[in-house]
């Protein structure tokens, strides 16, 4: 790989990772679009809140909160999108019921791993014995470093 190609690859990697380009450098044309769905559980599944966020290049432009019940645009583009999505009754019903089909479903799947194992782990813990001797000789040999004189 030539020097120019390596520099270009580095610039693309930095832009993708979110680092701003140096002054005068052109953008590579790589953009990031992300949608995050979050569930907040209060007292098990008694009170569940579903939040969906849409983000473009680190800027959140629209969000849905199940407590509010409709999309809220946070940028001019997000406001247009919110107006369109809020007027679609089928789509809005799907978002409003996400608390049940998305959040509560995941809660049932992960509860055994998050809460019920706490007591088991405490019961299985054994008192620790004497510490084993630690030596770096195998590592030194694998690195080609000879024994110390």
Structure overview:
This protein has 149 residues and is an alpha+beta fold. It is built from 5 helices and 4 strands; from the N terminus they run H-E-E-E-E-H-H-H-H. It has helices at 3-17, 76-86, 89-96, 98-124, 137-142; strands at 33-42, 47-56, 59-65, 71-73. It has a 4-stranded antiparallel β-sheet with strand order 1-2-3-4. A hairpin with a 4-residue loop joins strand 1 (33-42) and strand 2 (47-56). The longest helix is centred in the C-terminal third of the chain and has 27 residues, at 98-124. The model has no long low-confidence stretch (mean pLDDT 76).
Rg, rounded, reads 26 Å
Main β sheet profile: 4 strands, antiparallel
Q: Numbering strands along the chain, what is their spatial order in the largest sheet?
A: 1-2-3-4
How much helix is in the residues?
40-55%
Structural class: alpha+beta
Q: Quick gist of this model?
A:
This protein is of the alpha+beta class and 149 residues long.
Features:
149 residues; alpha+beta; four-stranded antiparallel beta sheet; 45% helix; 20% strand; flat
Topology, element by element:
Blueprint: H1 3-17, E1 33-42, E2 47-56, E3 59-65, E4 71-73, H2 76-86, H3 89-96, H4 98-124, H5 137-142
Antiparallel strand pairs: 1-2, 2-3, 3-4
């Amino acid at each position: 790989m030539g020097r120019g190609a390596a520099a270009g690859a580095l610039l693309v990697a930095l832009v993708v990772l979110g680092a701003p380009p140096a002054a005068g450098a052109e953008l590579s044309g790589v953009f990031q679009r992300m949608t995050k769905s979050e569930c907040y559980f209060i007292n098990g599944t008694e009170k569940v809140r579903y939040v969906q966020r849409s983000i473009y290049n680190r800027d959140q432009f629209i969000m849905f909160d199940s407590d509010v019940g409709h999309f809220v645009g946070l940028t001019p583009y997000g406001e247009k999108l919110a107006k369109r999505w809020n007027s679609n009754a089928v789509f809005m019903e799907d978002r409003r019921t996400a608390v049940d089909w998305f959040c509560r479903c995941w809660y049932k799947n992960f509860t055994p791993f998050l809460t019920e194992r706490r007591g088991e782990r405490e019961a299985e813990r054994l008192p620790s014995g004497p510490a084993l001797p630690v030596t770096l000789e195998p590592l030194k040999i694998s690195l080609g470093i000879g024994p110390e004189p």
